[in-house]
Amino acid sequence: MNTYDDDNIFAKILRNELPNDTVYESEYVLAFKDINPQAPVHILVIPKGRYISIDDFGSNATAEEIKGFYEAVSKIVEQENIKQDGYRTITNTGINGGQEVPHFHLHILGGTKIGVMVSKAV
Ligand code: 5GP
Fold first, then answer.
1. Is ligand 1 within 6 A of the CB of residue 92?
2. Is 42 a known active-site residue?
3. Residue in 7, 9, 33, 46 to alter for ligand 1 test, most ligand atoms within 8 A of Cβ
4. Which residues contact 65 (CB under 8 A, 6 or more apart)?
5. Is 54 in the pocket of ligand 1 (CB under 6 A)?
6. Which of 78, 76, 57, 79 lies closest to 66 in space, CA to CA?
7. Residue 115 covered by a domain
8. In this structure, is residue 3 part of a structural domain?
9. What is the CATH number of the domain that holds 80?
10. Which pairing describes strands 106-110 and 41-47: parallel, antiparallel, or unpaired?
11. Domain span at residue 92?
């Protein structure tokens, strides 16, 4: 998974070829509700740039894109009223990480106590 796939679902969402339930948008990010929520609040935050993974984003995004991404996370957790009680963020990467969509995304999960961090893999 080294080349960005322009046909991935989130690329299509960014091009408005597929609908989404947007909760926040800026110059740098789009954030929308996960179609299969795992918690009362389950939001996906994606950069508007063509980045496959968190390491691709960290290596190749501009400082403005990176700052814009994390500022968006801060605004979203306030907007969704999950800042005070806490929340979990998850980024799955590649085959071992269980990444389904090859466009970097951060899951924000909240609204209840989120369960165990991971099921044991050893
Ligand atoms: P991953 O396993 O790649 O970290 O997570 C992909 C997430 O995208 C899953 O939680 C899945 O429910 C969500 N998802 C997949 N397709 C769509 C879609 O078309 N719209 C939305 N809103 N979420 C999607």
1. yes
2. no
3. 9
4. 28, 47, 49, 57
5. no
6. 57
7. no
8. no
9. 3.30.428.10
10. antiparallel
11. 9-110
Count of structural domains within the chain: 1
92: exposed, middle or buried (Cβ count in 10 Å: 0-12, 13-18, 19+):
middle
Residue at 34 is within a domain: yes
Domain contains 1: no
CB distance 20 to ligand 1 below 6 Å: yes
The string of pLDDT tens digits covering residues 64-110 is: 999 999 999 999 999 999 999 999 999 999 999 999 999 999 999 99
- Inter-residue contact 98 to 62 (CB < 8 Å): no
Instruction: Output the residue whose Cα is nearest ligand 1's atom 8.
Output: 34
Check pLDDT > 70 for residue 29. Answer: yes
Do residues 34 and 43 lie in contact, with contact meaning Cβ atoms separated by under 8 Å? yes
